[in-house]
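User: For my dataset I need records formatted as: sequence, then structure tokens, nothing else. Please produce one.
Assistant:
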Amino acid sequence: MIYAGILAAGIGARMHRQDMPKPFLPLGEKPIIIHTLEQFYINSSVDRLIVVAPDAWKLYAEDLIHKYGTMRKEVNVITGGENKTVSIQMIVEFIAASWGIHDGDIILTHDAVRPFVTQKMIDENIATAVKYGAANTVMSTNDTIIVSQDGATLSEIPPKHIMLAAQTPQTYNLKTLAEVFEKAAQDGISLTLETELSRFYAQQGHTVRLIMGEYSNMKIINPYDLEVANALLKERTT
């Protein structure tokens, strides 16, 4: 079974909108999250989708999904956690309670505010996770990365060719991921402090294979990003 976990639980303070979380803001004629969901609806390999939303917006998300349709895909909306790692853990627990976790199950995790994910990225994530156990979408960076330990002075400039920007989807063998979460609980590790699941997953001794994303697979974080996304959408639809 191939699951897609769509992460829409963030409030999005950098968007400077107090009235609505950023996944529900309009992009063109539809909310951002609907553009994102549609890319997983049309992928023939994806069987079920689980959306994590802020508790206060859970019913709104359900109504929105019903309004635009799901292309006959099964979609469930659950309340998200304090960060993406906790939200993904909640997705895994929901799957385990609803359908059980079986050998060969795969879960793609994707930011709701990355609406330009492509079918190629989704397909490569699934194929890589099936073969190797985990996949992380990345992109080379055009900027030189500067490391500063104190936020004020330069500490290091890593070689540019080894620096990659993380994107989503990030994809895992579901059974292995559930075991990682279970071990964290046994070891008393608080996932509320672990914001990067792929790093935590690798630290537990598992390999994460990298696949190349695209610059257009942008994350809409602030008003400028939304302007760029609207321009990109307009270019693609005209």
